[in-house]
Amino acid sequence: MSFKNINLKNEYRSFEDNIINDFYVPTLNKSIRYDRAVGFFSSTALIEITKGLSGLVRNDGKIRLIASPKLSDEDIEAITYGYKTKGEVISRNILYSFEKDFNYFEKKRLNLLAHLISEGILDIKIALIENNKGIGIFHDKLGLLEDEEGNLIAFSGSLNETANAFSHNYESIDVFRSWTYEKERVDSKIRTFDNIWSNIARNIITIDFPEVCYEKLQSYKTEDIELDIDEVEAYFLNREIEEKTKIDGPILPNSINIREYQSKAIENWEINEFRGIFNMATGTGKTVTGLAAAAHLAKTLNHKLAVVIVCPYQHLVDQWVEDIQLFNMKPIIGHSASRQKKWKERFKTIVESYNLEVTNHFCLVTTNATFSSNFVQQQLRSIKRNLLLIVDEAHNFGANHLNSKLLENSNYRLALSATIYRHNDEEGTNALFNYFGNICIEYTLQMAIRNDMLTPYYYYPIPIFLNDAELKEYKELTAKIGSMIKKDRFGKVTFSESAKMLLLKRAKIIAGASEKVKALENAINDYRDNSHILVYCGATTISDPSYEEGRTDEEEKRQIDVVVDLLGNKLEMKVSKFTSEESASEREILKQSFDKGDFLQALVAIRCLDEGVNIPSIETAFILASSTNPKEYIQRRGRVLRKYKGKKYAKIFDFITLPIPFDRLSDLSEDEILSLKSLPLREIERIKDFASVAENSSVADDLISNIQDYYYLNRGEINSNESDIF
């Protein structure tokens, strides 16, 4: 009965190890004591601790469990200001976790749990954080095991005592042994647990499990079961396998490995009452995390849940469908080009069936436009039961015309975005937070690269300058826009619709600067024999007759057409446009040919790569569309950094538009230079952002220094609010 006879590893990771069979069962079989501090309390968490306890029970062992209640902001406020006592709030939260329809085998587990308590085998305490910042949630995850020889095992890590943690999430634990050099670590963790249990740990309040909650647990106790845990475990396992085959609704597939940060996001979402925002960099698994969250919620609700997923475009709906089906759902595909010709009839029927409780689940995946239609809105607003709304690229719903369509009867809400903060739209951003709730995870691009979720990249900024005609028009527009600026009493800048039109016109001058094409030719020449190249154009035109040798007419031509002509004819590269003008089937053929790299070297794209289109084989990108909107340039960069077989790193060439060459600025007065500084001020922010995460982070130092010095950007004459827009 000694731990020393077990071949223990230093760490265990789900999907690499079977944590229950490889660690829990063999150690608990030899244990006489099991102490466990976990995250938040739930009825399912209690149910799950019965797994693997047969040996400990046979050894007359004891269990001490410390958990934390899931407190809402309202609960914390009630405790902080003395509206209610801690005991009242905690009791109510724990009792609420039992207000669900337990299935047959869950009731059996609760019966077993009640026996463990009444036999004196299990004792539970509740812990909270309390400091000068107020009340918080105790979140330590620590376990201790002792055998009859006095050997001790301590383990810590991300694992919670929940069903999802054991069977679905990507979890890990580190293991320490008292009979090795790790004894000091074990002793430290014993002191930590004992201090918390005894309510002497600093800033932690530990209270006894409320009597009313013990009584609730005892209500599940029946006399028709003996404390034969081996037999019960086998029975439960068979029942769970049977139940899974009957479930209609989202289930996490065995083929999906949920990473620790995704698991943490879902846990935080649950703590926030299943409302929140996953602000995750492009390529870090927002879709899978969102669907895994839906699966977790469905299990919590005993698989009584309708799921509505909203995407900006039809091609994104198609991408979602594959993953939705993988998660055990058969979605209704709702948009004007849906392959399900009678989807409206099916949708209306399933909503009626769901409301009448004839069925307990359906899934609709649709576009922003169709979601906003009167028909879909009317059907969804009629739902009276559990409804989860998942919005992809949710930053779009900060716009008034979309925000007004968000469903108040959706009691569960999840926003997915790489850039939830709307550029120059504080009101729209606040509207998103007011509806969806708090950010549950902030997974940045830098974190994704560091954790091998995205490809490292090298960054090469290429400065170009407006020609005389472009500069003249730019200055004229800037003067007109400046005369239209209005500030409220708080200093906030606002623009009329006329001013906004002028801003768009000026932005097109910047995006379509003719020198970009010449600079592209110089930069891409070294890559004319390479493949997996993306050239990202602006949705703009070029009117300068000098961009093409021998051309004399002034007729405007789209930038993308000029670039395709340059690459395909002059440089003799195998190139194709990739825009919304190509059909979905044509784009799919282009993607496949691009991935192979034999018959297609380069894609020239406009906006359809901004949100959701995945072409992970891109290795080198030339970005002509000089956006100063973080939402746009963050998404464009993310497209280039997706992982792909054999892709070790990516290269990004960023064309930086400035009003006038540095050597000509000496001919201008200081006031004239200051009147031009808003554009370089905005461009420099993108340069810094791109360079800060790049492998060659110092590459832009000289350019940044020159822009700052020549345009007097260190003087701060333009405030940040004004410069962002103006």
| Average predicted local confidence, pLDDT | 81
Major beta sheet, specifics?
A: 9 strands, mixed
CATH architecture label of the largest domain: 3-Layer(aba) Sandwich
Helix proportion of residues, in percent?
A: 40-55%
Termini gap: 75 Å
Total helical segments: 29
Let me know the CATH homologous superfamily of the largest domain: P-loop containing nucleotide triphosphate hydrolases
Give start-end ranges of low-pLDDT stretches. Answer: 160-170, 225-232, 239-245, 544-555, 715-726
**CATH topology title of the largest domain:** Rossmann fold
**Gyration radius over CA:** 30 Å
Tell me, what is the CATH class of the largest domain? Alpha Beta
Give the overall shape, derived from the CA principal axes. Answer: elongated
Q: Percent of residues in beta strands?
A: 15-25%
Secondary-structure-based class equals: alpha/beta
How many separate domains make up the residues?
A: 3
Number of strands: 26
Gist of the model:
This protein has 726 residues and is α/β, with parallel strands linked by helices. Helix 25 links the parallel strand 25 and strand 26.
